[in-house]
Amino acid sequence: MKIHTLQIPPEGRHIEGEDPKEVLLLEDGLVEPCAPLAYSLDIGLSEGGVFATGTLRTAFKMACVSCLEGFEMPVTLENFACQADLEGREVVDLTEALREDILLALPAHPHCDWNGRNDCKGNPLPAAEVPAAENRREVWNALDRLKI
Ligand SMILES: [Zn+2]
């Protein structure tokens, strides 16, 4: 997303729009953007630079770490903020700043049941329960044998 400083009045400006999802492409291929990067930002001029604050919204397709099923997860950043130095230029590109913050918001260990609507098949039973039941039966068996 390129910002032309001549288009920013002294009081700042509100911009809304979308960047194609391709700007969010990752090289590892494990996480794939599946929606455009939508932004709603207040931009303004600061000393020697441009700042932007606002909301970013997109969605990613990723694989669950438990069951390996693919699922989609929306990602919203309510408090995005960035600052870019102009260094004499009239145009600054905020794409990299948007991209970085969005990628940081992704879960490190995505689970397909993140919203409670999906039933993750990879979730193991509470590990303690099965052996405990077995143990109890053994104890009773042992007691039964004692009575005889
Ligand atoms: Zn899962």
What do these coordinates show?
- The chain has 148 residues and is an alpha+beta fold.
- It has one domain.
- It contains two helices and seven strands, in the order βββββββαα.
- The strands form two sheets. Strands 2, 3, 4, 5 and 6 form a five-stranded antiparallel β-sheet that branches. Strands 1-7 form a two-stranded antiparallel ribbon.
- A hairpin with a 6-residue loop joins β5 and β6 (70-85).
- The longest helix has 19 residues, at 129-147.
- It is elongated, with a radius of gyration of 26 Å.
- The model has no long low-confidence stretch (mean pLDDT 86).
Q: What are the SSEs and their pairings?
A:
Elements: E1 2-4, E2 13-19, E3 31-33, E4 37-46, E5 49-63, E6 70-85, E7 91-93, H1 95-104, H2 129-147
The site of zinc ion (ZN) has 8 residues, from loops.
Tell me what portion of residues adopts beta-strand conformation: 35-45%
User: Topology as H/E string?
Assistant: EEEEEEEHH
Poorly predicted sequence stretches spanning 5 or more consecutive residues: none
User: Major β-sheet, in short?
Assistant: 5 strands, antiparallel
Shape: elongated
Bound molecules: zinc ion
Spatial gap, N to C terminus: 83 Å
